[in-house]
Please model this.
Amino acid sequence: MKSILIANRGEIAVRVARTCREMGVKTIAVYSDVDKNSLHVREADHMVALGGETPAESYLDQEKIIRAAKASGAEAIHPGYGFLSENAGFADKVEKSGLIWVGPPASAINAMGSKTEARALMIGANVPVVPGTKGAVKDANEAIEFARSAGFPVLLKAAAGGGGKGMRVVRNEGDLANALAAAQREAKSAFGDDAVYVEKYLEEPKHIEVQIFADKHGNAVYFGERECSMQRRHQKIIEEAPSSAVSPELRAKIGATAVMAAKACGYVNAGTCEFLLDKNGDFYFLEMNTRLQVEHPVTEMVTGLDLVRLQIEVARGKKLPMTQEQIQLRGHAVEVRIYAEEVMGGFLPSTGKLSLWRPSSGPGLREDTGMYEGAEISRFYDPMISKLVAYGETREAATDRMVRALREYRIAGVMTNIGFCRFVLDREEFRSGNFDTGTVERILLPAYREYIEQGEVVPTWLPGVIAAANKVFRTEINLAKSAKGSQQSAWKTAGRRAAMSNHRG
Amino acid sequence: MFDNATITIGKAKYEVRQNDNELFVNGQRFDMPEFALTDRLVRVRINDSIEEFVVNRNGDDLWLSFHGRAFPLVIETEREKLLRVASQDTEGGMSGAIVKAQMPGLVVRIAVKVGDTVKRSDPVLILEAMKMENEVRAPADGVVKEVRVKERDSVDKGTVMLVLE
Model:
């Protein structure tokens, strides 16, 4: 395999291209009209335009992508995550058109892609699952019937879903019908499939996931777990490896269960089994993600492996180069997903130009990004700016390092969640490891709101310098009032002048 | 001669007074530090160290980023404060038929004449104060009954300039 078309964009396309470069594999980038100047295009050896602005017109257009692969002479397709990565039909088309699919076989994607089928399969393989309906519910009555027997709260989930879309917690019967309709609409628009099923909702569980890897020769291993409980609305914010809630014994047990799950569906390549871990140390299979995961870097940090390299080797038909016994975890890694969003505005995406962007660097840090200074964060795609990972010998060292990194980070032009993440990392809930999937919404967001209102935590000189800068750069009207475009340029022009003359205010 | 401003970070209010050489924050004195600005990042030399902060705009809101933390920020200069108080007064409704000068100033231009129909918040005249032109707006819908000032008049705070009915 000498060339790979990367059927994705943003940081994951860049990340895959980097490993390909290291392996001497040629890369072909595809891109939408919006992405013509993107980093992922620049990092690739060749580029093929897909046209269009929306994902449907570009990164989700299967025919266009296969044509691009054929035209560019690619031998394989790496799907990254999201978009077509978990589309069994696409994986099948890729293989049938004579290309190598860097991912699991279509049959395994199919088996795990429908959450209801996956549950049935797991029950058959003696993998513990959360109680729920056998399949997608036909109507609200069926959902109500299950909810009555299992007890509220219940969780509505899109059968084809992921990333929190099509998901709803329902706490009483009166809300169920409306929530179901909303979940179905969301599922339909996000995944093209409105199948929604109902599960018992576990209160205050941890979200623990196991990275597994299987080759085409029947070998399968696990690379330890990731702690992904710091999430809001089912969207992960901070991930870690390993989890402070998982003992070596539990790791072995949950890891072996994940490998069992993988073998039950004839899995090959990289996959992730998600589990809910309750306070008694019992765990339940949630779903399997049949692709590389956004947060895979934390596993790479503590195992020293390059999972994309392994993916490519496995796709080439090579055997896994290690046994379970040879896999040792070392140290601790924390990942923060830096998003362009308004934390206090309900985590709404914040679009705009990254007019100033100075990421942190130095010992023990890794940053995976598809951004660059001047990049436009558009409404068309996920507003993730970067995945920042800090490594340390201990959890505390990794966390302290991440706090240092966030302190260094400078961004202007869009709102970000950096302040919120730094706040979370300093909190007792995070430091103690004593948090669950609801901690952000239950405790940390209200606490954060209170925290940012206490402006007196800044040094006394700071408001003074703000007033002085406001005066010198003659932007008092621009800063405080009127429309958006004009005042930014005024501030900028004044800034250039001042910077050049090192103006004394 | 000092410039005054109110800086609000979160809910904490700071009264800032400044001249070319000095800064007072809630009465605490600092030498005016050196600072420079690039894009929205301010770099300042203070207390024998160099610090940086970013002021980001989000719609009508400002956010301060400092040391990896983010706070809502409001900057109000003395002039902006006067304008705000003025508009609160004129928008009061009860005394809505009278347009008073909310600060001492110079009438630069009168945009209406007796008999004109105006809508609430239509600009009716321009008052120069603190070296800035400020639009004075109609406090309510109505017809201009009296114009008591003429262009180039200096007015004191509280002078009745227009009467509407």
Q: What stands out?
A: The first helix of chain A runs from residue 10 to 23. Chain A has 18 helices and 22 strands. Residues 476-505 of chain A have pLDDT under 50 and may be disordered. Chain A has five domains: 3-102, 132-200, 203-330, 332-457, 462-504.
